[in-house]
Automatic annotation (TrEMBL):
Record lineage: Bacteria, Bacillati, Actinomycetota, Actinomycetes, Micromonosporales
Ranges where the PEP-utilising enzyme mobile domain occurs: 418-499
Keyword field contains Kinase: yes
Name of the featured protein: Pyruvate, phosphate dikinase
Reaction(s) this enzyme catalyzes, per UniProt: pyruvate + phosphate + ATP = phosphoenolpyruvate + AMP + diphosphate + H(+)
Organism: Asanoa siamensis
Amino acid sequence: TKFVYAFSEGNKDLRELLGGKGANLAEMNNIGLPVPPGFTITTEACRAYLDSGSQPAGLAEEIATHLDALESAMGRKLGEPGDPLLVSVRSGAAFSMPGMMETVLNVGLNDASVDGLSRQAGGNDRFAWDSYRRLIQMFGKTVCEVPGDEFEHALDAAKQAKGTDNDLDLDADDLRGLVDGYKKIFAKHTGREFPQDPKEQLDLAIRAVFESWNADRAVLYRRQERIPADLGTAVNVVAMVFGNLGSDSGTGVAFTRDPASGAQGVYGDYLANAQGEDVVAGIRNTVPLQELERLDKASYDDLMRIMATLEEHYKDLCDIEFTIERGKLWMLQTRVGKRTAAAAFIIAGQLVDEGVIDLDEALHRVNGAQLAQLMFPRFDLSAEPDQLAKGIGASPGAAVGKAVFDAQTAKELAADGDDVILVRRETNPDDLPGMIAAQGILTSRGGKTSHAAVVARGMGKTCVCGADSLDVDVRGRRFTVDGQTVEQGDVISVDGTTGKIYLGEVPVQPSEVVRYFEGTLDPDQTDDALVKAVHRIMSHADAKRRLAVRANSDTGTDSARARRFGAQGIGLCRTEHMFLGDRRELVERLILAQTAQEREAALADLLPLQRADFVDIFREMDGLPVTIRLIDPPLHEFLPSLEELAVHVAVAHERGEDAGRDEKLLAAVRRMHEENPMLGLRGVRLGLVIPGLFAMQVRAIVEAAVQRARDGGTPRPEIMVPLVGAVQELETVRAEAERIIADVVADGGVEVLIGTMIEVPRAALTSGQIAEAAQFFSFGTNDLTQMAWGFSRDDVEGAFFWRYLELGIFGISPFESIDRDGVGRLIRIAVDEGRAARPDLKLGVCGEHGGDPDSVHFFHEVGLDYVSCSPFRVPIARLEAGRAAV
Ligand code: ADP
Ligand code: MG
Ligand code: MG
């Protein structure tokens, strides 16, 4: 294997092998941009090194060969005393991991070559010693784990002794002294002298970069960002160019467009007389890039030309790092730049306008997660609220409320009508009631896979976690940050998108993008660039997608909203929601019925109520399919809790009162108690054991449809039977339903489909048989996931999912994104066998996965006809379905 690539041998498509930095350095080199010569050691070499703990055979020789070539190109030898070549040793993985791994500059300097470097620079001792002290500092810290702040302290002391706080005021002698101090620090912590052999420096630095892949913070970052753990990093060895040679030199960073708004212009920072790491470290204040035009017009013009070349070449926003050495511009890094969600849409639209990309490509430049971000309400920051801290945005949204520090108080205050934010160091299952009661959750520890983050995302609740500057004192009911204290009851505002936490109530703005989807903001009338871009890209997604998108909705109001958001029907109308509220009593009567008459009377009272609900929904979804699921959950969910009832009855008995009805209820609740209700009497099983229940529902649906048709509408009902595991179950329900349909729709004016959910694994495995009796399948992926894995969602998300995520058993909760290998396999089987048995079988999905971006791509791949999701997610599913299709 070839382990080392000269820049001339690589290109931008080799990022897995050369890392992003290496691949793009090669690309810039190949398109003729000024990149200092160098070479890249592959990620494969890193993996081999990490697996075996030593350099793979042949690597050392290859490095030597490439170093020779570099030395010839530069006309200098690494660290040679009279005229040294210096290099940087830079990490660079396939995925950008900002600040996570290591870079060492000025490798090759030692007690002898420092003088040679000074001579190269025309007798510039200050520059040479500044470079040397930087090497010892970076090498010590990143290669030998010397605590960085010891170097910082020594630097501060030197500045103090000089009576300055600007490192530029330190002269050559000061820096020479500092180097002595640094060497002592180095020796104290490593038990050896700072290595003087340039080749040894290089070798140790390369190993340190390899090993930085497994540094704690890198491991943690990858887990948070769901980057695979086994990729390894590449190592770039690059000839040094010097921005610290004087005021005609400097270093900077720039974007080809504004990464926040997408606006074109000059965006960046510049720092004269400095080396690259100074910009990031914030040692001195940078100046806006525009200043460079005044300082060094020729370099500035060069830079502008190069940025235009890069945009044209990458056809996208790029960010860059550059250094100017005595008026000569060098490119040190570029990549397609990260950007905000809004900028992603705007830039994609702009690039289409500029003729750089087409609309298909524009679809690839945005994604559903970004669209989701744009749909959350945002904080209005125009009043510049007081930012307390920044953590990890773990679950998006803008939440405002009183800080509380325990679940009990959260519940109590929320019950009194207060909005609260639950603040904890970290959360555990005991905090669940408080999390439910809170508007938002804030923790000082843990990342995107912590308990707080996982549970909050599952609940769709705003969450910021890992705000580690917060000192949370749960007992004292307060937290402190930067000397400020927030007591229980103080209002804070938490932004789950950016991770920022503010003191006080920050006003919340509705999202323009939602207003557009709702139809209250006309994209042709506004000059909001974001809305225009979203409109354009959504229209293209709609034109391209093959999947239809429906909504899950149980009411006329939700259905109307879903339709405005672009839903092409309803994929799941849950009838049980229609059994709650003041209708609960009717359901109780049904359950308590001792005789057929009592039962029929209860059903007769429910019938018109259900029918009216369906009329509403059919009206809002006129002309579009509406899938109505017959009653699904265990009946006891409609009854009072066993404990409460038992207490009621006991109290009544004590008082010598007649508990009458409650007593009957109690007996019924006892009778219906189940150890595993999710696997008990529910779904189709209910329909088969309670005479008349499904019949009443079917009648209500069909009568509503007939009524709508009579009023001139076009209802398209689809009756869906839940929890079927065997075709015989479906056949039984179907036979009864067909009799009712024939009876009610005597004139044939309404077409009614009958189908089933596929949510029991056995149904997927016998789908060929089931398709004989079903006109459609709808995958209930929530239950299918629960039953395929054998765990109940309500119990596991809080109890141990965080641990599973930590251990990498899954990278993401299978309830958030479809488990392709397991649950997905069941779906594929059902699609194939169902369609084989019945070619015109309609296939859809109605679990929450229907609105999850990755899952939508999977459903597209397996060839479903539609996905159905909550109304708010409909635009996200539309966009992702479009992206899947181009
Ligand atoms: P990161 O990935 O953290 O940005 P880099 O490897 O890009 O780390 O290097 C850190 C800084 O050092 C950057 O500002 C970069 O421009 C600068 N740098 C890296 N290599 C060289 C070099 N050969 N000459 C001059 N500056 C360099
Ligand atoms: Mg960099
Ligand atoms: Mg289900």
